[in-house]
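User: Design a sequence. Structure:
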């Protein structure tokens, strides 16, 4: 049996706050399905603070990741504190926290956004963080990423051999395929003061999510359509999103929009099924899991014609120019006025979503493990 050290620091931080981001969802599902395949997972957290956030029994390294990476970067020595390192055959960092160790290390890299567009990431200590992250990337023996598109981008911007990167698609949780009964749908809609049929966006509010152009596109629609199909945005306030939040509050004042901030995973699944269309005009995605979740929910999808999104959509979504509010608005208008088109997208999306599973993600990840032992 393979015993793998598995980084869960970021997962612990997210789950303690009641909300899993993309890395948290990836870490949780990958761990669960790897264990189902017989992989012995040895969860690791860096620092006492992270340990205190965890309810499960995790291995604790003592130092925070920030102190450990700084120490290793300056001294060249391996991370300290993994007392049971001899039990581990390799270490997998699914959350960008890549340690320097004496055993093989696999790092999951979601995208090279900090290198391509540093203005799209949090600015506090940006340059120091970027230097240390680039340093830690050199400590990994192999890399996993989440689409063919982003594998090429990562190779280019991190200056890594393409053969050292294995693209493995993400999966779709079964809950998105389960149809909510009418009572549950009505209960969730009442909870958020909504009615069936609305344009829905899901994602953390940050510059690359392109909320500003989505709002511009929505405001180009005829006023009667704005009232019939209001714009609903689900996502916490990330960074540099003050103008987007102000614009959404203006839509709320006009009764044509809602910003819901955070909703539970259960409510999110129901709201996806209640939406008239899911609109996801992101400027850059390493994968774009919400697109598949909308497919599984039998909701027609509008998404960007760039980065990984065409690869993930696989011809089952309307593709738009994310830099053009006109292009986004035209697709929104078509999807609510052409029922035959919408039904065709729903059918293709349902088929496409079934092509992605966390079991397959875990199985291909286990193959990478075996290749390094």
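Assistant: Done.
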């Amino acid at each position: 049996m393979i015993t793998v050290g598995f980084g869960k620091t970021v997962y612990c931080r997210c789950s303690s706050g009641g909300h899993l981001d993309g890395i948290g969802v990836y870490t949780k599902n990958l761990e669960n399905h790897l264990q189902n395949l017989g992989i012995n997972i040895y969860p690791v957290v860096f620092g006492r603070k992270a340990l205190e956030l965890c309810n499960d029994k995790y291995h604790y390294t003592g130092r925070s990741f920030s102190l450990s990476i700084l120490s290793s970067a300056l001294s060249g020595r391996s991370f300290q504190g993994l007392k049971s390192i001899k039990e581990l055959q390799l270490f997998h960092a699914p959350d960008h926290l890549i340690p320097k160790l004496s055993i093989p290390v696999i790092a999951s890299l979601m995208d090279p956004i900090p290198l391509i567009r540093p203005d799209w990431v949090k600015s506090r200590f940006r340059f120091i963080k970027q230097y240390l992250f680039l340093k830690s990337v050199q400590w990994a023996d192999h890399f996993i990423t989440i689409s063919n598109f982003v594998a090429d981008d990562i190779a280019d911007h991190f200056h890594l051999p393409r053969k050292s990167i294995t693209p493995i698609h993400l999966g779709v949780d079964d809950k998105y395929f389960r149809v909510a009964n009418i009572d549950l749908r009505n209960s969730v809609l009442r909870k958020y003061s909504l009615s069936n049929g609305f344009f829905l966006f899901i994602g953390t509010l940050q510059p690359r999510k392109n909320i500003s152009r989505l709002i511009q596109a929505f405001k180009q629609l005829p006023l009667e359509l704005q009232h019939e199909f209001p714009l609903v945005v689900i996502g916490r306030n990330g960074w540099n999103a003050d103008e987007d939040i102000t614009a959404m509050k203006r839509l709320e004042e006009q009764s044509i929009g809602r910003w819901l901030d955070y909703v539970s995973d259960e409510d999110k699944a129901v709201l996806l099924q209640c939406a008239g269309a899911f609109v996801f005009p992101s400027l850059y995605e390493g994968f774009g899991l919400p697109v598949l979740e909308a497919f599984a929910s039998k909701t027609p999808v509008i998404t960007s014609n760039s980065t990984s999104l065409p690869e993930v959509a696989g011809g089952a979504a309307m593709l738009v120019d994310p830099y053009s509010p006109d292009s986004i608005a035209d697709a929104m208008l078509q999807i609510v006025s052409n029922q035959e088109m919408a039904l065709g997208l729903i059918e293709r999306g349902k088929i496409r979503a079934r092509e992605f599973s966390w079991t397959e993600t875990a199985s291909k990840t286990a193959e990478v493990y075996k290749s390094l032992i």
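The chain has 17 helices and 13 strands. The first strand starts at residue 3 and ends at 7.
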